[in-house]
Specification:
The complex is a heterotetramer. Chain B is mainly α. Chain B has 15 helices and two strands. Chain B has a domain of 235 residues. In chain B, strand 1 and strand 2 form a beta hairpin. Chain C is an alpha/beta fold. Chain C has a domain of 259 residues: P-loop containing nucleotide triphosphate hydrolases (Rossmann fold, 3-Layer(aba) Sandwich), CATH 3.40.50. Chain C has 19 helices and 20 strands. Chain C has a six-stranded mixed beta sheet, sandwiched between helices. The chains are: A mainly alpha, B mainly alpha, C alpha/beta, D alpha/beta. The structure holds adenosine-5'-triphosphate (ATP) (2 copies) and magnesium ion (2 copies). One magnesium ion binds next to helix 2 of chain C.
Chain lengths: 321, 353, 529, 321
């Protein structure tokens, strides 16, 4: 099978899976097809899927960012802290975004310029950035933001479609173009495939990695702020544990954890698969650990199935000759 | 220097440097905390690192083969809960049998991971990310979210954390810690001196080459996961003994702690290099930081931030030291002595067309 | 060969009569393939190959790049499974499912690209496949054995240090040591000499002859025709996946083999036509990098080919890396067109018009899973952007197609992953990539390693053509005849030091070799620049 | 009065699944459901602990989509649940909080308070006094998470209570958090011991924390010098009370809390009770209750269950059965 064929079959598999899930949801719940529910389906995980977009680039580049959820929390807490200190909300938002950018640059510095493994650096970030968020808000829950901020996160601006969903759509398009059409995207793949060869070809490996981590920090911060707007209040433990969900989405999308392969179409399908599955289970009153177990099993199965199929196919061909 | 280069491997120097870092940390905290240099501090750190060390040893084996096991936290939870329930029901179960049950259960869960990775050809991070959720989900469902309580456990188990094997001048060496040390020694020697251990390194170092020379990669990867599961099972037993009170949340997050210990301990996350001893030092490093930070008179809220920074510094300084070492040792590697043999010129001549 | 190292090896037990068969040729075939064929997608890599190997013979395989030599070897060693046909070992049909099984059957291979365990010590690399399960590793014994084997090869590498960072040649030596330590009946060598220098080749051949004397059959692949005719008893030629001819060495000639290979008459290595040498381009004075190389001084003119000769590890590659900015020099000066420059990164090197074609195409030269096109345009990607910053695929493909024609890269499409090309064609892709940067100084590090005669002649023609357009070329090569034929002057390195620079007239095999081995005699010293 | 026999979908939403008290509450709610002959099964849905905030919001939103009649929430997220709770109310769903309220009371119809939160402070102060004797001494608090609304309210109430000259000899020296995890709580208890050599008591107003602290002291052979108290489940605490590690602790019945919450929610949803000050209703076997202003919050209504049960050597064994 050519790489192309394989990719096609991967996305085909996700598409088939998606169809099955959607049909099951429609059959099982009369509420599923409501416009409100469809919007909710995105809205409930919107921050995670926004971050999954940039995580796709990072993983294709052969790195990982475990600190995204903590950066989300950090940005929201910086925003809340500034707001509480008397800053106007727009300034507080900028402050939150800058905090995320700074965190991303910090990660990027250690990974790109010092050459530490990103797993270790961002594991430290996962603990450390959350710590800074906690220092800022301690045990308080900070709310009372102006109405427009809460509206931004909660109210639909195009029918039931919220600002967050629009931002996601725009980001998706941007990331698709960057990854599959721009020089940066090409370099992301090249570095993910063979870092040394990229370096020997004059690729500025360090600045590409730095750019990605900075972007990851910034987008995670944006997602954190959108999360704050959706919830209307901020606590130190915001978004804890989101990183696993985000990485799950990307991996299910067919992106290799070792870098160098995967595409955004797969990730887009994987987002739809997971969101619909979650929503369907939620409407069927399956929650908590059962829900995560099912998604865990799906993750394994979605890689196992094509492998098994391939094996069988090979065996069958083997018998024929 | 020459002598050093010949007789000490870079990995060993790296372990020494980590040891040095731990000492620096201890001296630092000693100057910050009153009454730090007491046997209590020692005992505290020693008994707190037992569980994480045992898990980190298993994680090391898996990481050496260029894989990762994120399900260990759930395996610890499952075994602690299951064995706890078992002991609650059958009070006079033989202690050894209880330990074996824990290890066997862990090994079985590890075997599932191993099967899926080795024969299902699924990247380990995907498999174990999945089983992390699945094992925990099964635990919550099967247990009906009940709790194992200390009073349901037999006395010998509840008393186990207090059992000291030795006491040197007030420094207690608890049995559970010594168990961890024994595990470390066994696996350190095993990976250093047994062919099967060296093959873990080979696989992680260059999987293609391992396949070409015909190493049984699948069986070895499977074995690594089984061992990791078994050790997580053992850690589950220790968890049960230490905390007594086991909710279905027990062991959650241990996977990240184990990976942190392994990474700080200098095991290459992409496989092929690092040692079990290093992983233990990593666990002790993190344990020292954590336990010392609890005692530092700083706000609760500062602890995580400082811990994150310290882990980063540990990894960074280790990397810088290792780079230096590699450079030094590298020179020695590349000394290729080519004594020009007498017939060389003749042969060269013979090559001309 | 009763070395302790070999005493503890296994693999030959199945052949109790091993020494009986030592007399060679007349015995039964040890290995036979019948009508083997293999295809990859649209490529028919092998078609109906029936081929025999007898005990105690050295049998060479010749063929252009992509002719199918490596594929046949991979099938014999169980790495690939044939689509059809069968393999017989000592007369009995066998199915070889894995390399381990091949080893158990007494077949071992040294592959075209060395595959070592960078984290294991050299000694472990040699013995890792011998150790049984659960067996205790005797570190001391193993090191001694490893040293003994390497000593036979005339190479002394610290066997206790990790294999990471070994030069390609050293890696190759370890590979050879690994294979001979297995004490096998059939030893397959896929271009083992590609990264070896002359006297190592001589040493290797001594060893091959020893093994042959013990009844081991050796299947030998090389693109260096002279070598083949020095060592082989029989020569089989492949073309386009078919077996064209099998002849005794005594009954054929290099010329004849080459015409079998390419299907037409072809000359041997011809000296490059002398071109007019232009003004000074690159001027290097006292260049050095701490404890790697030192005091390198030379000039390069427009249109000149400056050959770099020397033994393995002489530091030639390191000079290339310093000039290109990958491992910047720490002392000395570089002047380009009379202006002093510093090169701190490959990007800076490229912007100054310097290009470096690496010797290690798998690790450093190419991004194997990516397409030919993407690889070729990579360094100049910024030239392929439209005003929105997006890549102009059409333009990219145009460029790739142009180079495909110019260097006759054999592929069904330029969108194919480079990994799927044969070694030689990969080399051509790498060359295209750097030609596309339109360099004024082109550093070629082993540009013809693993390239067949046809392609090699093409590369040589390209070098000549480029030189004629005024590019200054530094040609690093371990193929001494090539260096001599192509270069206007030859710089000889030894252990990080510049030994001599010979003009074209002065440069003879003997002189270059003597200099490379550190025995510069007085008259040559005088002619050194 | 509350008429049985209505078929209404109702959701009981604990902070998260997997700890004992919430299971007991579930038991109580089921008991009430049976009494009230609700033919629709009670949905006991909860998030996983690491995804608790987002999980509660998701479950609330999905319940809203399904158009259930009432949601009973033990809030784990401060005011972050407000937007989704308000959305539920907007669709006519009754939102009852129990165990842990919504601090701002927005989006909530009524809070079923297990005990008076101010009283919790007094009860804890009294237990501390009782254990330490007239001479008092130094003590520390081991709480759940720094963000838990009810924990923080109780700690605040206790600090308030301590201002009374009666407790002048009690000295609160530290507050630490074990995040409702056995392991973390155990380590925190040990750290307290190391940090404060003259500490005499650990007060843990969390059922996970109190057992972990007791076990830590027992393992450290410190039960003679340092005692444990707080809020705990008798079944889990009985051993430590009997051996003197935790001479006294308090709790209310979670079974009753679940039972009362169900009655309240059922009453509101069926229209039998109005969510306004002064309304009264009869909750089955538990008797008469009245809706009042919640004096512990700025806004909001509450139903006060009460009282505390204080456990010691005399009664703990019976309660643990
Ligand atoms: N894994 C593969 N997938 C697709 N095509 C392949 C693969 N391996 C080899 N081929 C193709 O099979 C043909 C034979 O390749 P092979 O490597 O055997 O050539 P070779 O004779 O060893 O050449 P060289 O001298 O360049 O090493 C080539 O056309 C090559 O492109
Ligand atoms: N410490 C090191 N770690 C990794 N690689 C190294 C180290 N030192 C040298 N090398 C690499 O080894 C290779 C060979 O180096 P060198 O320049 O000494 O040999 P050479 O004269 O080019 O011989 P060859 O014919 O083998 O290429 C180069 O690619 C160089 O970068
Ligand atoms: Mg080949
Ligand atoms: Mg070289």
């Amino acid at each position: 099978m050519t790489i192309l064929g394989r990719l096609k079959s991967w996305e085909g598999l996700l598409l088939g899976l998606l169809a099955v899930i959607v049909v099951m949801n429609i059959l099982r719940s009369p509420y599923f097809l409501g416009a409100g529910n469809i919007a909710n389906l995105f809205q409930l995980s919107i921050e995670k899927i926004i971050v999954a977009l940039i995580m796709t680039l990072i993983i294709i580049n052969g790195e990982i960012d475990l600190s995204v959820a903590s950066i989300m929390g950090l940005a929201a807490c910086v925003l809340a802290w500034l707001f509480q200190m008397g800053a106007s909300l727009p300034i507080a938002i900028v402050g939150g975004l800058l905090a995320g950018l700074a965190a991303g640059l910090f990660n990027g510095f250690w990974v790109a310029y010092v050459g530490l493994p990103s797993l270790a650096v961002t594991l430290a970030g996962l603990i450390g950035f959350r710590g800074i968020a906690r220092i800022l808000v301690e045990d308080r829950a900070i709310g009372g933001f102006p109405v427009w901020f809460n509206t931004l996160g909660q109210q639909g601006i195009l029918g039931p479609i919220t600002a967050s969903i629009l931002i996601f759509a725009v980001l998706f398009a941007i990331v698709a173009i960057v990854l599959h059409g721009s020089a940066l995207g090409r370099l992301v793949y090249v570095i993910g495939n063979n870092l040394q060869a990229a370096r020997y070809s004059g690729v500025r490996v360090q600045s590409v990695k730095m750019t990605l981590f900075a972007a990851s920090g910034l987008i995670a911060a944006l997602a954190g702020i959108l999360y704050a707007a959706r919830l209307g209040s901020v606590r130190g433990d915001m978004a804890t544990g989101f990183e696993l969900d985000i990485i799950t989405i990307v991996l299910l999308g067919g992106v290799s954890i070792f870098g160098g392969s995967g595409n955004l179409a797969g990730v887009g399908l994987s987002i739809l698969v997971i969101l619909n599955l979650r929503n369907g289970m939620g409407l069927a009153n399956i929650t908590g650990n059962t829900q995560t177990s099912v998604i865990g099993a799906l993750l394994i199965f979605s890689v196992l199935a094509p492998n098994l199929a391939q094996n069988l196919q090979r065996r069958w061909i083997g018998r024929k000759t | 220097m020459k002598w050093l280069q010949r007789h000490v491997r870079p990995e060993q120097v790296r372990e020494l440097s980590l040891l040095l870092l731990i000492i620096v940390a201890v001296v630092f905290f000693g100057s910050m905390i009153d009454g730090y240099y007491t046997s209590r501090t020692f005992n505290r750190i020693v008994s707190s690192v037992a569980i994480i060390t045992i898990v980190a040893v298993g994680q090391t084996l898996v990481v050496l083969t260029r894989n990762i096991d994120l399900s260990v936290g759930s395996v610890v939870g499952c075994t602690a809960y299951f064995v706890g329930t078992l002991l609650g029901r059958y009070h006079d179960l033989n202690p050894l049998l209880a330990v074996l049950t824990a290890v066997a259960l862990g090994a079985a869960l590890g075997a599932i991971n191993g099967l899926l990775v080795a024969w299902g050809r699924i990247p380990s991070i995907i498999v174990t990310l999945g089983t992390l959720a699945i094992y925990r989900g099964i635990l919550v469902d099967l247990s009906g979210a009940r709790t194992v309580t200390t009073d349901s456990l037999p006395g010998w188990l509840v008393g186990l954390p207090r059992l000291n094997l030795m006491s040197i001048g007030g420094l207690d060496l608890p049995a559970l810690f010594m168990l961890a040390v024994a595990i470390v020694l066994i696996f350190h020697l095993g990976t250093g001196y047994l062919a099967v251990g060296r093959r873990f390194y080979a696989i992680g170092s260059n999987p293609d080459a391992a396949a070409l020379i015909g190493l049984p990669i699948r069986r070895l990867v499977f074995l690594a996961f089984v061992l990791s599961g078994a050790l997580a099972g053992l850690a589950g037993f220790v968890t049960l003994a230490r905390y007594g009170n086991i909710t279905v949340e027990s062991g959650r997050g241990l996977e990240l702690a184990a990976v942190a210990a392994v990474v700080v301990g200098g095991v290459n996350i992409f496989g092929g290099s690092g040692t079990v001893l290093g992983a233990m030092l990593g666990a002790i490093m993190i344990g020292t930081l954590e336990q010392s930070l609890y005692r530092l008179q700083i706000s609760e809220f500062w602890r995580d931030a400082i811990l994150g920074l310290l882990i980063l510094l540990a990894v960074a300084s280790d990397a810088v030291i290792l780079q230096r070492l590699r450079a030094l040792w590298g020179r020695a590697d590349l000394k290729i002595v080519t004594e020009p043999p007498a017939e060389a010129t003749v042969a060269a001549g013979a090559r001309s067309p | 060969m009763t070395e302790p190292a070999l005493a503890r090896t296994k693999g030959a037990e199945q052949f109790g009569s091993s020494s009986a068969a030592a007399s060679g040729q007349s015995g039964d075939r040890i290995l036979e393939t019948r009508s083997i064929s293999k295809h990859f997608d649209a490529t028919q890599a092998l078609q109906d190959i029936s081929f025999s190997l007898y005990p105690g013979e050295v049998h060479a395989l010749l063929g252009e790049n992509g002719a199918g030599k490596s594929t046949l070897i991979k099938i014999i060693t169980g790495v690939l499974q044939p689509d059809g046909g069968e393999i017989l070992l000592a007369g009995t049909p066998v199915v070889i499912r894995s390399a381990a099984e091949a080893q158990r059957l007494g077949i071992a291979a040294i592959y075209q690209e060395p595959l070592l365990f960078p984290d294991l010590s050299v000694a472990e690399n040699i013995f890792v496949s011998h150790q049984g399960r659960g067996q205790v590793v005797g570190w001391r014994q193993m090191s001694q054995d490893a040293e003994a084997i390497l000593a036979q090869l005339g190479v002394a590498i610290d066997v206790r240090s990790p294999a990471r960072g070994l030069t390609l040649a050293a890696q190759q030596s370890v590979e050879i040591a690994k294979a001979i330590s297995l004490n096998v009946r059939v030893l397959i060598m896929d271009e083992p000499t590609a990264s070896l220098s002359a006297h190592e080749v001589a040493q290797l051949f001594g060893l091959v002859r020893d093994l042959r004397g013990q009844g081991v059959s050796i299947l030998f692949v090389s693109h260096r025709i002279e070598e083949v005719f020095e060592i082989a008893d029989k020569v089989t030629v492949f073309r386009d996946g078919r077996l064209i001819s099998t002849r005794l060495r005594s009954e054929t000639s290099p010329q004849r083999s080459i015409s079998d290979m390419v299907g037409r008459e072809m000359g041997l290595l011809k000296p490059r036509p002398r071109a007019a040498i232009g003004e000074l381009l690159l001027s290097v004075r006292g260049l050095g990098r701490e404890s790697v190389f030192e005091e390198v001084t030379f000039d390069l003119h427009r249109g000149e080919v400056l050959g770099f000769g020397g033994l393995i590890g002489a530091g030639r590659t390191d000079i290339g890396l310093a000039l290109f900015g990958i491992e910047p020099a720490t002392s000395g000066t570089i002047a380009l067109d009379g202006k002093e420059i510093t090169v701190r990164s490959p990007r800076e090197g490229m912007d100054l018009g310097i290009a470096y074609v690496s010797e290690d195409r798998r690790q450093l030269g190419l991004s194997l899973p990516m397409s030919i096109t993407a690889n070729i345009t990579l360094p100049m990607l910024h030239k392929y952007l439209d005003r929105f910053g997006l890549i102009r695929r059409g333009l990219e493909t145009e460029t790739a197609e142009a180079y495909r024609k110019r260097l006759s890269i054999r592929t069904s499409s330029v969108d194919l992953a480079v990994a799927k090309l044969s070694g030689g064609n990969q080399q051509k892709v790498m060359l295209s990539k750097w030609l596309n940067t339109k360099p004024s100084v082109l550093i070629l590090d082993e540009p013809t390693r693993g390239i067949d005669v046809g392609a090699k002649a093409e590369v040589h023609a390209i070098i000549a053509e480029l030189a004629a357009t005024g590019i200054g070329i530094i040609l690093i090569s371990s193929d001494l005849p090539e260096v001599l034929a192509m270069s206007d002057r030859v710089l000889v390195m030894r252990e990080g030091r510049q030994m001599a620079i010979f003009s074209r007239e002065e440069a003879t095999q003997e002189r270059v070799m003597t200099a490379a081995m550190g025995q510069v005699s007085a008259p040559i010293g005088e002619v050194a620049a | 009065d509350i008429a049985p026999g209505k078929a209404m979908d109702m959701v009981l939403l604990p902070k998260f699944l997997g700890i004992l008290p919430f299971d007991q509450a579930h038991q109580g709610a089921e008991e009430a459901a049976k009494e009230l002959q609700n033919s629709k099964p009670l949905q006991f849905l909860g998030p996983t602990p690491e995804n608790s905030v987002a999980g509660q919001i998701e479950i609330t939103t999905n319940a809203t989509t399904q158009g259930v009649a009432a949601i009973m929430i033990s809030n784990n997220s401060g005011d972050q649940i407000v937007p989704s709770a308000k959305a539920a109310q907007a669709k006519g769903i009754k939102v009852v909080t129990w165990d842990s309220p919504i601090p701002s009371a927005e989006g909530e119809d009524v809070f079923v308070a297990q005990v008076d939160f101010t009283e919790t402070g007094k009860v804890m102060a009294d237990m501390a006094m009782g254990i330490l004797g007239a001479d008092g001494g130094k003590f520390a608090i081991l709480s759940a998470s720094p963000d838990a609304a009810n924990q923080n309210a109780w700690i605040a109430a206790m600090k308030d209570a301590l201002k009374d000259p009666k407790y002048a000899k009690l000295q609160l020296i530290d507050t630490v958090y074990g995040n409702d995890q056995s392991e973390a709580s155990y380590n925190q208890a040990n750290a307290l011991v190391d940090k404060h050599p003259d500490m005499k008591l650990i007060m843990a107003p969390t059922s996970v924390g109190i057992v972990a602290a007791a076990k830590a002291l027992q393992d450290g052979k410190l039960c003679d010098k340092i005692k444990v108290s707080g809020l705990g489940v008798p079944k889990e605490m009985v051993a430590y009370t009997m051996n003197g590690c935790a001479p006294q602790f308090a709790l209310w019945s979670f079974v009753d809390l679940g039972y009362l919450s169900y009655y309240t929610a059922y009453g509101l949803a069926s229209g039998a009770i109005k969510a306004e000050e002064g309304a009264t209703f009869k909750a089955g076997r538990m008797g008469e209750y009245k809706i009042t202003k919640d004096p512990t919050r700025a806004k909001g209504l509450r139903v006060l269950m009460g009282p505390f049960s204080i456990y010691d050597k005399k009664n703990v064994e019976a309660a643990a059965k």
